[in-house]
Amino acid sequence: MSTRPPGHAAIVRAARAEFAERGYGATSIRDIAQRAGVSLSALYYYYKGKQDLLVAILDDAQDAYFSSCEQALAEAGEDPAEQLEALVEATVRYRSTHASKSNILLSEERSLEPEHLERYRADNARSTRRFRDIIERGVQDGLFLTPYPDDARRAVIAMCNAVAQWYEPGGALSEDDLVERYVSLALTAVEYRPRAPRRASRTQA
Amino acid sequence: MSTRPPGHAAIVRAARAEFAERGYGATSIRDIAQRAGVSLSALYYYYKGKQDLLVAILDDAQDAYFSSCEQALAEAGEDPAEQLEALVEATVRYRSTHASKSNILLSEERSLEPEHLERYRADNARSTRRFRDIIERGVQDGLFLTPYPDDARRAVIAMCNAVAQWYEPGGALSEDDLVERYVSLALTAVEYRPRAPRRASRTQA
DNA sequence: CGGAGTAACGAGCGATCGTTAAGTACCATG
DNA sequence: CATGGTACTTAACGATCGCTCGTTACTCCG
């Protein structure tokens, strides 16, 4: 998609920016075309219509996120804490470096027509399950002490997602530091207590 | 606003529902009028236009949230933990019982025209400051051990806000239980460690 | 040199958009 | 019983919407 004709890339870039800023429903294809520096009918050379463009952008954004998670998990070991770290890192990095994609992904589900909605929801559910399974296993292994695994999961996901709404690359906080903080916050949220050092006796009520 | 003519209340209710479901930009005033069971021009009897209606809905939603926070804080004592509890409880209750208002509040800032944006942002900033000041004081008092107060604050706010997107009243989880869990999660996020043995039993240790 | 395919363009279609103007039914008051 | 405000209505305006049409410029291949 990047090595394609320059017009195509410009259209996708412009559409992503407009959808992220104004929302799908408030964006006209003329807005997109103007931002991309092409005529409005150029859009119809590459896509069947506005909805088709949204679907393509959503698919691309979802693929990018999922493959990033997949890779992070592949490099992580068996330890649930390590896996949660990997997932949080992948998510935070994605939200911070691809803010437009993230914000569209997180807010334009409602703009999808019914025929595309099911697949989109199913894919998102797989992603949620990733978090859920890891946290559940951490709880079973006695590594995560949270009494509310489901709510801890939602909290971790919500706080990572919110990064896309406020973080500015190149600001005072580096991406690596950001990741470190959110990994730490996530482990705190699930109440991670490493097994090895036996000196901890305050836990387990 | 509730004791006004029935048409007015119906319009506001319909507009809230439509804005929350489809978004401001994707909602037409005809959609709103039809849902309210009035003609589209009835809207112009009460409001100057679509934007004016959004502003009224946003103002009402903001007032409801802020006054709820104010009341909760007034009933809380001086203890930062108690104050954070009060703020989280007020926020979670608001998000869970006024999902439409919440979701509009959380996503339609971008639909505000410049002249209304400044006041809206300023009011929201006051709300954020509430959380920030309480957490900062908790850290200074040595009650909150989090090394990242700003990020913990963002995490707490984000997880509370997300409630509006998934919680269903009347479901398996009661509102009181929901509040209890999120208060607990928030105290965990700021790494609350009570100085003296409080009678608290919902937090571990 | 002559198609074939690619990558667009400007003009315009019907539908829908936010908004306005002018009118109407219904009270309550004087 | 006339008058004035309240609470709407129907009809229509110009602008903009997503989308289609017919055309054009430019390559590459034989």
UniProtKB/TrEMBL annotation, chains A, B:
<dbReference type="InterPro" id="IPR009057">
    <property type="entry name" value="Homeodomain-like_sf"/>
</dbReference>
<dbReference type="Pfam" id="PF00440">
    <property type="entry name" value="TetR_N"/>
</dbReference>
<dbReference type="Pfam" id="PF17932">
    <property type="entry name" value="TetR_C_24"/>
</dbReference>
<dbReference type="InterPro" id="IPR036271">
    <property type="entry name" value="Tet_transcr_reg_TetR-rel_C_sf"/>
</dbReference>
<protein>
    <submittedName>
        <fullName>TetR/AcrR family transcriptional regulator</fullName>
    </submittedName>
</protein>
<feature type="DNA-binding region" description="H-T-H motif">
    <location>
        <begin position="28"/>
        <end position="47"/>
    </location>
</feature>
<keyword id="KW-0238">DNA-binding</keyword>
<dbReference type="InterPro" id="IPR041490">
    <property type="entry name" value="KstR2_TetR_C"/>
</dbReference>
<dbReference type="InterPro" id="IPR001647">
    <property type="entry name" value="HTH_TetR"/>
</dbReference>
<feature type="domain" description="HTH tetR-type">
    <location>
        <begin position="5"/>
        <end position="65"/>
    </location>
</feature>
<dbReference type="InterPro" id="IPR050109">
    <property type="entry name" value="HTH-type_TetR-like_transc_reg"/>
</dbReference>
